[in-house]
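If your schedule permits, I should be very grateful for your opinion on a structural question. Kindly check, if you would, that the fold set down in the tokens agrees with what the sequence suggests. Thank you for your consideration; the sequence and its tokens are set out here:
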Amino acid sequence: MTLRRAITTGAVPGMLLFLILFAVGTYSLSHVQSNPDPDTQRVMERYAHKIYLTLARIGLVHLWTGLLLGSFSGLVVRFLYPQLQHRVGFSLLALGVLGWTFFYFTARLLIRQPTFYDQFLFAQGGAARRLQVFLTDEVGLFGLNAIAGILGFAALLTSRHFRELVPRRTPWTRRQLVFVLLLATTALGISLRWVWSPPRPERPDRPNILVLSADSLRPDHMSFEGYHRLTTPNIDRLAARSRVFRQAYVPLARTLPSWTTFLTSTQSHTHGIRHMFPESSRRRIPLPTLAEELGKHGYRSGVVSDFAGEMFDLIDYGFDLVDTPPASHLDVLVERQMLLHYPLVFPFINHRLGKRALPVISYLTINSDAKSLAHRALRRMRELSDGGPFFLTVFFSTSHAPYASPDPFYRKFTDPAYDGIHRYAYGIRDPRQFREGDLEVTREDKEQIVALYDGAIAAVDDAIGVILEELEEWEFLDSTLVVVTADHGEDLFEGPNHLDHGKWFRGGDHANHIPWILFDPTGELGVGPIEEPVQSLDFMPTLLSRLGFEVPSTCQGVDLVPALRQEEPFPHRPFFAETGVWLKAPSTFEAEPDALLYPHINDMLDADPFDDSLLLAPPYDRQVVKAKHRMVRDGKWKLTYEPTRSGARYRLFDVERDPLNRQDVAEQFPEQAARLRAELRRWMDQDRCRVFDGHDHLSHQFTDLADG
């Protein structure tokens, strides 16, 4: 059979197969959309044209995937059996190769990232559940690759090429030589992970800065802090050579406001980013940023991230290179739900080219691969290393809910006997589920979710190990300041908490407590733990000072370098914080009729007319700021402020004796309560709302940041 006919014979069934898959997914989608929830209905009416364009792109991706996979199947059969002329027999063999290839890549993704399929298999129970558990727990990637190798070798043994090679003693033909070379190259590619390595970057004359950050990372779940699981062996080794700030805190435990504080060294009521959904006019920050200040001294800067890093596309922090998903729009939420109805195409499009065709793939919370991000970061590091110093931030999303880490990390610490909905990742993944209250969780569920979280941390640590190993290979580690930190921590069922951050200050300070490891290759800043409290506000001035650069007068943080050099004592300061947006306020405070409330997050979101990004409609923006909980912590004392319908409620806690903040001791220690209340009031007076009403609430008076 001719080569052209072989390709055609394989391409036709391939396209038919994937068009059938597209039709099945579209039927499933249309069935769901025939009775859409209010959020989806609202977006469908506004962005119908974009939704149809997305549907067309998904259809074209299916068509091209079927074409390429089918053509490949025809080529394989043509190569193995070049003398086969019977069209029906050839078609059956091509279908067999197509079917096996389809099964192999689907099973591989199912084993490596089971959350792509657990809603369609595990959640259905019965034989479907047993199949997924068998593949993930019994077969695994090694077993699947072994089966593929055995079947491939069996196909090779039956090929005419192989049978001709064995008995012949005459010189090989050119085709036979090509066949042997292809076989040897394939075997080498399978046994060795071949990666093209460009020339080693040049070392700069000044220190590089590498920030390795993970979303929702709690320091007390890292093994160098004494955690009972070995979650961070690579970070542990770095921490042993670094300064470790054991009491580091962020003033707002949400990603966008926290990163803005890191990169401007200002409080959220100064830089104006009070929550995750600011309108475009508030996203223009007239403050010097760390990237801009370093750029003045010849540093090239960049940031690399996956799904949680979309906010770097929302605000211009002055980075020269931004390799992150674009900022979320309302239509993206619907596109994401659309794509989840086509799970069988994921194994063939979950790569760089596929993400260009369907950018929404990058938004999937179940599609976070820390090691893949590490390799992207190394490529970007090479781009930034052109002989001058670089400042690169790598922000990992894997440790963010739903803690969907890839193989083997999702089962690294979990109980194989667990059979609940959180087997592979936390059960809430659909934004529409936020309308409901927190899932009911048993003790076994909690243990499973925490184990998944720990596995996600281990996945991030493994990726950080890849980066550090490459820096060692380049001989860059001895000329790079390395920071390991987080945008915020996480609540994990402590006290009244479920899984959340930035919601309130009940149950302790786990959401605001972050790791901060500072590795200085010169040893100038010393080695060992620092017990004095520090804040993310100190990040920018400390790095600039360490490099010998002037610290902008706008910075509200403290330069810690003199204290680290033991030239001065560590500054003693109260720590202030506020909450973000409650995603589901009505259900969060359903037992508190006196609480200041606003609607569910989906009812408050709108599209910014400037760029269609998500924002809180202006009336709700004001309600959110007014309803914020706030707190001040000074030593062992912590005072919280919660506005209610009848007035502000203050509570005092002794965090040394009561780390979960269960007992209000304001009556026992009235002097401490009065002192901290005055401190908190002074800090709140700096808020750009500025005006207090008769209930001791910050009122709705707003000014633009640019107005000072």
